[in-house]
Amino acid sequence: MRLLHRAPGSTSVFTLEEMEALLLLALSILTGAGCQDWGVTLPAGPLAGWSGSCVTIPCSYTYPEGQLVRAVTWSRDKERIVRLTATAGQGYDRAKRAQFLGDLQHNCTLRLSPLALGDGGAYSFEFQTQSQSWKSPRAVCLTVSEHPCRVQHSMSRTAGVLSGSTDCSISERCASSGLYWYDKAGTQISQETGKSKSRLSMRIIWQHRGAVLECRVRGYRNRCLPKGSQPPATGRPHPLKVLVDTDGPGPIREGDSFTLRCVGDSGSLDQVYFWIHNYEDLPGSSSLQIEGAALSHGGNYTCMKWVSDIGRAYLAISPTTYVAILAPPVVHVVATPGPHRSTGEPLSLTCRLDTSAYGGLGFSWYKDGERLGWAQAELAFPGVQVADGGEYQCEVHNTLGKSTSLPLTITVVYGSDWYQLSPGPMAGFGAGVLLLFFLSNLGVYCLARRIRQRKELGGSLQGGSREDPSAPQRDSLYEEIPCAGEIPCPSDDDGDYYNSPKDYCN
């Protein structure tokens, strides 16, 4: 049975059991503990509270006269959370939210502020004297629920543009007169608002980069704090900034890995991070790791953090940080005035890059795959010679790496004829000239031999005196005699033809 109704987390009104425990504590102090036996008095019924609020567990303990208390201990589900000794003071206060309000005599009251959802459980008390230890025969149960006035968030975004909005909202069970947004100076920001929801456009949020905005429940009062006091300074998060961690010194190159960190933590347990890359939303926590960076990973990065609290919430927005990703430069060789020159004319070869983002560059030159002893961006020939022809490449390098150009072929001119100055084409040209010379001489030889044969045949027929009338006559004296060995040549002895495979016109 409760004496008065109270909202969970309130400390202004006690239950009947708590008042009985306090009265028992006062009676034991007034009458002395001489007639008291071993015992621990805790509230009879379970306790309830809201997260972010506070709760006090009244407690008293008694022991025979003449005993001296050396240590007291509070435990939750058999795990020690507070211990007070005569020599070392209070310990086990890991979260700094459990406060022992008692002493080493008869008061063992415990206060939890602010409550967290994980604080629920069975609480028991134990004390030790110089002769023995005594533990409460039962535990008091505590239930922690979500506070209806905790400010939650929701975000509605359209990728690629600064559109959408961020909403802060509370449960309809929270007694309030609405939610409102405020800038870092405490000035109210114009927005769409209602009793349980308030909307702030993304464009307004983007204008407050580097600041912390607050969404506050109007009419809410934290009953765990003295009337008129302000929330602790640690509740408002610090301004954010983005730090870029790289694997090594210097700029970030393609293929490198880097990490973005959103710095400015307030230590709150209820916080959510957001990342925006070139107006695109990215998932992430307080850090964002990029493996194998590409050019698309460069650009502007902004992080936001939402810190939820009871009666208020905060949205911290970092300034925009630009991340540059350097790609290997494209290198090419430029010939001035051009790659085709006459012997003796000047020629300049220049190694050019498609970007000016690199510094501290060194240069190397290659001709037909062989490195030249020249380390400048320009390779100049006052008068180009035949031996200077070939394929040229340039290479640029610094501490970040190197890039090599495609080959450029240089040719020279002799009079009106162009010759490419490389061994392969020159050898082919010479072989062609020799073959043409051989074929032309072979044709002249065959033509002369054919004319001689016809003359000899005509002279033999004109003599007539030695011709055998009975010999068969040919159809034509001028039939074509090919020079491919198909028709045998005449004999030198008697003018007759013979089929000998050894004597042909060719």
TrEMBL record:
Domain called Ig-like: residue spans: 239-303, 328-411
Transmembrane feature ranges: 426-448
Region named Disordered: 483-506
Entries under SUPFAM superfamilies matching the protein: Immunoglobulin
Pfam family, one: Ig_2
Domain of life: Eukaryota
InterPro entries referenced in this protein's UniProt entry, alphabetically: Ig-like_dom, Ig-like_dom_sf, Ig-like_fold, Ig_sub, Ig_sub2
Signal peptide: 1-35
Family annotation (PROSITE patterns): IG_LIKE (PS50835), PROKAR_LIPOPROTEIN (PS51257)
Record keyword Membrane present: yes
Keywords, ordered alphabetically: Membrane, Signal, Transmembrane, Transmembrane helix
Protein name (Swiss-Prot/TrEMBL): Ig-like domain-containing protein
Species this chain originates from: Mauremys mutica (yellowpond turtle)
